[in-house]
Amino acid sequence: MSDALINGLAGAGGGIIAQLITYPLQTVNTRQQTARDPKNAKKKLGTIEQMYQVVKQEGWDRLYGGLAPSLVGTAASQGAYYYFYQIFRNKAEVSALDRLNKGIGDGSVGMFSSLVVAALSGCLNVLLTNPIWVIVTRMQTHTKVSKKPQPGLNLLVAPDETILAALEPPPFGTSHAVQEVYGEAGVWGFWKGVFPTLVMVSNPSIQFMLYETLLKKLKARRASSKKGDNGITALETFLLGALAKLGATVVTYPLLVVKSRLQAKQITGGDKMHHYKGTFDAIKKMIHHEGLYGFYKGMSTKIFQSVLAAAVLFMIKEELVKGARSLLTKDAKLIKVVRSKPP
Known about the structure:
The chain is mostly helical. It has a single domain (about 5-340), classed as Mitochondrial carrier domain (Mitochondrial carrier fold). It has ten helices and no strands.
């Protein structure tokens, strides 16, 4: 089994576990991002309060709306990303060693090379998996009301949908989301938001650049200590992954909001602030109707969700890689011993 395949499978496994743990936060955050509020809107509810309202008004299942396609998307996305990342990383390491043999550099992959490797992997991942995330966004922002709302209770609903509180809407599953997207824009509708998503490749690129840099420094410090051990514990991987994701999220969050707006359900009639023709139209209308605040809606929720998810993913992925390599090494040694025995 190749090292790239091991990393790809481990990334998929870590991504699924991280998604299961943080999915309710992701659902609430997507709703926060897609809410079209005017500049003078009242202060919104906090994350926990919004989660409580979703459960009270729509039931626990709405916090997990779109979970099935999201898990498929996570497995495909993380698997593809880590697979291509390891392939490009191996090539970068070979190139670095070639330069060292020529008397250039120290033989290690630099920050810029790490950034390029992550960016290339991210672009391939986005182009392959964007349709899945369009479906997930639709299912996360679709709302239902199972009860008649109590007086004075503020409903958390997608602003571009009209919901009659006294009626029970029909179920909204993956097939319904697919039909809705195709009905609006045809096949190309599944690549809505792909431009800001491609630009968002800078998020994991920055994340991996920070992670690899911090990891390299920690290993170097560990190796230079008296014990000379450069091994990294699961907790240290968790903390490095969290720190790297925090820095990347703060820098790229506005693009994430624009992407979610484009992938959520669009309406052609009524208030034009609810309909976006494209990336630049969305940016222009958000600035006009909501101000700069619109680009940072739900940022605190996203930071908590994404940092926790990234930390869990990195920790589990690295442990799975270690376990797989150890298992393969033991198998190889066992085969060697068996072959060496005389018949």
